[in-house]
Design brief:
The protein contains 11 helices and 10 strands. The protein is an alpha/beta fold and 269 residues long. Helix 5 links the parallel strand 2 (69-74) and strand 3.
Length: 269
């Protein structure tokens, strides 16, 4: 395992905490356009989905009424525990699998494999050949990025604070990218992935309270409460609240959400 992969795996393990899974529910929903694209990608193939790194099952639960079945795989028992409490989670068409994607028992052929940010926590040299074997002929892998604010009025001040916070805490300045910078780059770059296309969804407005916005931030690996600890989490929340309160209306923050979707074929070599 490379040093980079080991680092990603360590970050990925932060999603195993129960509080992290609860916070995950506060993330904004993906724009409806995301699901339109995914359904178009599965058309003409077996209507069977592999949701790799499914988290709390957002993609599976949104699509399950329009597909034959889904395997929803995640290494975090806490995430799957939350997923099973949600509407439609008891559907007989869903197989919830507690496992890393590298070792999960798969039931192919899949007409579509989807991986959101979880793609960064995977050992791709092992995972992509498994995907190639599991996909039906001509079926694709879709990778997603983006379920947070885009061009929010507080973005510049928030980013400056976050960079300073991490620099002070970790002793080095992070290589930070804005969401628009991330949208300009591929989600997945690997010799075994041949990208066929991509789309950045149209902006969709979303509103939430400052408290929920902060819990959403704590659902991300960098700001995990278990990782930061009680004292640093409180300091983070206090500083962020001061920034965000200047941008509320009737106690709510409103911002646009967009997602980058890219899709392509996976090969074994």
């Amino acid at each position: 395992m490379s040093d980079e992969t080991a680092t990603y795996r360590a970050l990925g393990r932060r999603f195993s905490a129960g509080r992290m899974a609860e916070n995950y529910l506060l993330r904004p929903p993906y724009p409806p356009e995301v699901y339109d694209v995914l359904l178009e990608l599965i058309r003409g193939h077996p209507r069977i989905l592999l949701d790799a790194g499914c988290g709390t099952g957002k993609i599976t639960l949104e699509l399950i009424d329009q597909i034959e079945r889904a395997d929803a795989v995640d290494p975090s028992d806490a995430m799957l525990g939350v997923a099973r409490t949600l509407p439609k989670a008891e559907s007989a068409k869903i197989r919830w699998v507690h496992s890393t994607i590298e070792d999960a028992p798969l039931e192919p052929p899949y007409g579509l494999i989807v991986a959101a940010s979880s793609i960064h926590w995977m050992e791709l040299d092992r995972t992509l050949p498994r995907f190639a074997d599991a996909l039906a002929d001509g079926a694709m892998l879709a990778a997603l990025d983006g379920d947070g604010p885009v061009d929010a009025p507080w973005e510049r001040e928030e980013t400056a604070f976050m960079i300073d916070f991490l620099t002070t805490r970790e002793g080095k300045r992070p290589n930070w990218k804005t969401i628009n910078e991330r949208f300009a780059e591929p989600v997945l770059v690997h010799p075994l992935f041949e990208r066929d296309g991509h789309r950045i969804t149209a902006p969709v407005a979303f509103s939430q309270s400052v408290a929920d916005y902060l819990r959403c931030q704590h659902s991300r690996a960098t700001w995990s409460e278990d990782h930061l600890g009680k004292k640093a989490s409180a300091e983070f929340d206090a500083a962020m609240t001061s920034i965000l309160n200047r941008h509320t209306r009737d106690g709510m923050l409103t911002f646009n959400v967009q997602t980058r979707i890219e899709w392509g074929r996976v090969t074994r070599s």
